[in-house]
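User: what does the whole thing look like in 3D?
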Amino acid sequence: MTLRGPLTNVVLLLVLAAALVIALGLGFFHVAPADVLRALFGDATAQQELVVGQLRLPRALLAVLVGAALALSGTLLQGVTGNGLADPGIVGIHAGAGVGVMLLLVLPVSVREASALAQPVAAFVGAGAAALLVYGFAFKDGGVTATRLLLVGVGVAAGLSAVMLLLALRMNDQVFAYAVAWQSGSVAGKGWAPIRVLAPLLAALVPLALLQARRLDVLGFGRDVATGLGVAVERQRLGLLALSVGLSASAVALAGSISFVGLIAPHMARSIVGPRHANLLPSAALLGGLLVLVADTAGRTLFGTTELPAGVMVAAVGAPYFLYLLGRSKA
Amino acid sequence: MPRRRGRVWAIVLALLLLAACVWSVTVGAVRTPPATVWEAVFGTDNGSTAHEVVRSLRLPRAVVGAMVGAALAMAGALMQGLTRNPLASPSLMGLNAGASLALVVLMAVYPGLGHTPLIVAGFVGASVGALLVFGVGALSPAGLTPVRLALAGAAVSGLLGAFTTGLVLLYGIAQGLLFYSVGGVQNASWRQALLFAPWWLAGTVLATVIAPRLTVLALGDDVAVGLGQRLRATRAIGTLAVLALAGGAVAVAGNVAFVGLVAPHLARYFVGVDYRKVVPIAGLLGALLVVVADGVGRLIRPPFETPVGLLTAVIGVPFLLYYARRVGHSA
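Assistant: Here's the predicted 3D structure for the full assembly of 662 residues, as C-alpha cells:
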C-alpha cells in the first residue's frame, strides 16, 4: 500500500516521457517516434535533428516545466487554504504579472527591448507585488483565513484587470495584439533561454516544496488541530504561500497566463494517488507537465497553419473538467 | 417609518439622477450651458451645432447610460437575492464572457457589420453564458447553492474567454474587441435606446413582480416553501428578468463593471433588506453611478474619453476588498 503512490508516480513519469517523444514527432514536419529518439541521441538526419532538437525540444520542455510549476503552485495553495478551488490565477498572481508586462509594453521601445530578460522580470515583479497586495489586504487579526484570501484575491484580480484595460487603451494595434497573445499563455518560439532560467529555479523550489509535504498534511486538519500538533500555523502558511507564488510567478513570467492547470492538476492527482502530499505533489507536477505539453501540441497541430496558444487549449479542456468537478462536489 | 424612508430615498435619488443627467448633457469636449440645453430640448430646433450635439449625441447618451446603470443594478439585486450570494453580479455570472464571445464570432465571420446585429449578438451571447452558469449550477445533486453558482460563473467565464482569445488570435481582431470589453456608452444613440427599451421595460416589470418573493427567499428555501412559494417559478421569473436586464445592458454598453455588485449593497445600506425597496433604489443608484461616471470620464482627459467601465471599477474594487475583509471574519 505504501508503495502504491511512488509506483504510480513512476508510471506517470514514463507516460510523460512517452508523450514527450510522441509530441516531438508531431507537426508539419512529421518524425516517427523511433527517429525522434535517434535525433535526441545524435544519430539522425540534419533536418530531423534541427526540427526535433532545436525547434521542438525547447518548446516541449518549457511546456512541461511550466505545467509542473503551475501544478505544484496550485497544490500548495489548495493545501494551505484547505480549499480545493483555489488557483494561482484566482488569487491575482496572473493579473499581477499581466500588469507588469503591460506596464513594460507602454514604455518606449528602447527601454522595452533593452534586455531579453526585461519582460520575465517585469512579469515576476508584477506577480510578486500582486501576491503581497492580496496577502496584505487579507491579513487581519494576526492572520489570514482561506475565505478572505480567496475573496480578496478575486477583488485584487478584478482591480488589476481594470488597470490592464487602462494600459491597453494606450497601446497601438500591434502592441495590443502582442499583449493579448502574451496574456493567453504560450510556450511557442522562445528557444532555450527561458528553460535556462526556469530549470534552476525549479530545481531549487521543487525540493523545497516536497520537503513541506508533512506540514501540508498537518495543515489539512485545520488551523486548531495543526496548532495543537505544534505547527506554527501562520508562519507555515506564509512560507508555503511564498513558495506557491514563487513557482507560479516564474511560470507565468516565462509563458504568460496559463490558467486552470494549477486548479485541475491537483484534483486529477488526488483522484489517482490520494490526499497525502508526499505522493500528491510529485504526481500533480507530472500531470501538470503532461497537461500543458498535450495542450501545446494539440494547439500547434490541430489547426492547420495557424496555432492556438497552450493557455487557450488548456482552458478549453480545463474549464469543462472543473465544471464536472463542481457538479460532483457537495459544497 | 421604514416605508417612508424608502420613499424619501427614492425621491432624493430621482432628483439627483435628473440633476446628473442635466450635468452630463452640459459637459464634454464642448461645454454647453444649461440654458442652451433647455432650448435644445424644449425649444425649436435652430439648426445650430450646439443643439445638434445635445439632441443627437449627449441626450441619448445620458438616457442610455441611465438605462444601462439601472438595468445592471436591478439585475445584480435580483441575482444576489436569487442566489443569496452577496457577490453575485452580471460580470461574475458569465454574461459578459458570453457576450464577448458572440461578438467575436460575428466579427470573425462577418467583418464590418453595423451596430444593430452586434447588439443582438451580444444579447444572445450573454443569455447563453448565463444559462450555462445556471444550468451547471442547477444540474448537480446539491442544487443551485451560492458557492456553486459563483464558481460555475468563474469557470464558464474562463471557458468562453478562452474561446474568445482563440478567435481573436486566429482572426486578428484584438483591437475591435478592446473597446467593447472596457465598456461604455460613448456610441449611444436614440436607436440604441429604442432597441434596448422593450427589454428594459419587460425586465423592470418582472423584477418588480418578483421582488417581494425575494425578500421571503432570503429567509431560506425551506421557509420560502413553507410560506407557499413555488421556488421553481420564482427562479424562472427571476432568471428571465436578469437575462432581459443584464443581457440587454451588456449588449448595449459592454462590460460596465461592478455596478451590478455595488448598487444593491448600497441600496440595502440605505433602505434595509426588503427587496420591494432594494430593487428600485438599486436601480436609481445604478443609473446615477453610470451617468456620473460617464460625465466624469469625459472631463478627465478631454478630448479623449475615459471609459465608464474603468471609472466604475475605481469604485467597485475598493468596495469588493472592503467587503472581502469583512466577510472573511466569519469564515
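In plain terms: Residues 49-83 of chain B form the longest helix (35 residues). Chain B touches chain A through 48 residues (CB under 8 Å).
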